[in-house]
Design a protein that fits this description.
single chain, mainly alpha, two-stranded antiparallel ribbon, 14 helices, transmembrane helix, membrane, transmembrane
């Protein structure tokens, strides 16, 4: 039987790194030694043994690639899932903030509204000339059966809705509240990842106790509590440090205040003159205007989150930046998981598989 010299010298594996080559060499050493001093029948047996080694090794490395492929899909699914959960978390808090302010304004309207509010609002816009026309205006109130004489102090030169929006939705205050919600959302993402990572590592540990040794070798910080639960630390904090996010979101307050529309735009949405003919109908119309103003607030905030790009967020809009954070943590964690299996990358694993396949091809040629 003609044994190709490349089989005996393991030429197919020569391009691999030294450590991997030594592992392969140990696998075949005994068989190669026997081939040198065997008859045709025994050589054939040794070649079949080598073929089995190749098949088992290929299957081992392919299984690693399949497992890691599954882990990668699972981790990227987690990234999308947490991104969606964070977006829901953020919008629930934005809606709660807007509802709290809207309800407060409506409560103030119910408390302060008078059925001649429309006249007051129109008059308030002309308060600068009110003294000159006070007698005429008082006559108007008298004709409308309003038992009151009006004076300048009744007005602060703002209509009721404008004043209430000024008091409850001042631009910087809105920006501060949005900023706090974004910071809460950021912390929500980190907390969710920590929970998911802890759960995932515990699942791996339960399936393969040896995994804990790899965790130690790769210096991933962990602790085990009295029930045997493993808690991985340092992954999300390491990512935050790497991305320079530790400073938080306070730098966005000024940017948010400057891109968010001023109160005047929202006031302009409402047609404030409510009439004097029907008290309840006029008040309902004013409340309807408040609700429309807050629907517009929500639309503007959604646009700001989805479209406005911020220099402080690496040029991302807020929604995409949360996606960027999630993907960064996912990729960092995926690299950590890879290191629990092996200390090489996908490309090198594929090179090892190709080397075994090449060696097996030489064996099949020798076997005829």
């Amino acid at each position: 039987m003609n044994i190709d010299d490349r089989i005996l010298k393991l030429d197919s594996f020569k391009e691999l790194d030294r450590e991997t080559f030594e592992v392969v060499e140990n696998q075949f050493r005994e068989s190669i030694g026997k081939i040198y001093n065997s008859n045709e029948y025994e050589k054939k047996i040794e070649l079949y043994k080598q073929k089995i080694i190749c098949l088992e090794s290929i299957n081992h490395y392919r299984k690693i690639l399949v497992d890691l492929g599954l882990r990668e899909r699972e981790i990227m699914r987690l990234s999308k899932e947490i991104h969606q959960e964070a977006s829901l978390f953020m919008m629930q808090r934005i809606d709660a903030f807007l509802k709290e302010r809207r309800d407060k304004i409506i409560e103030q309207i119910n408390r302060e509204f008078v059925w001649y509010q429309g006249l007051k609002d129109v008059a308030s816009k002309g308060a600068v000339v009110l003294n000159k026309g006070k007698n005429i205006l008082n006559k108007t109130f008298e004709m409308a059966n309003i038992n009151k004489s009006i004076d300048v102090k009744d007005f602060d030169n703002r209509m009721l809705l404008e004043r209430l929006l000024d008091e409850n939705m001042e631009q910087k205050d809105v920006a501060n509240n949005l900023n706090n919600i974004l910071e809460q959302t950021f912390n929500f993402i980190l907390d969710e990842w920590n929970k998911k990572i802890n759960f995932h590592i515990n699942a791996l540990y339960e399936r393969d106790k040896k995994i804990i040794n790899k965790i130690k070798e790769n210096k991933i910080k962990f602790q085990i509590d009295s029930t045997g639960q493993i808690f991985i630390t340092g992954i999300t904090s390491a990512v935050v440090g790497t991305l320079g996010l530790a400073a938080g979101w306070h730098t966005l307050t000024y940017a948010l205040a400057n891109v968010f529309p001023p109160i005047a735009i929202f006031t302009a949405i409402a047609v404030v003159f409510s009439g004097i003919s029907n008290k309840e109908k006029a008040k309902e119309r004013l409340i309807t205007q408040v609700e429309e103003v807050f629907r517009e607030y929500r639309r503007q905030i959604l646009y700001l989150i989805d479209e406005e790009r911020f220099e402080d967020l690496n040029g991302y809009c807020i929604y995409d930046y949360f996606g960027f954070i999630n993907d960064a943590i996912a990729n960092y964690y995926l690299d950590s998981i890879k290191n629990l299996y092996f200390e090489t990358d996908f490309e090198e694993i594929n090179e090892i598989i190709i080397a075994y396949e090449t060696h097996m091809g030489l064996i099949e040629e020798a076997l005829g």
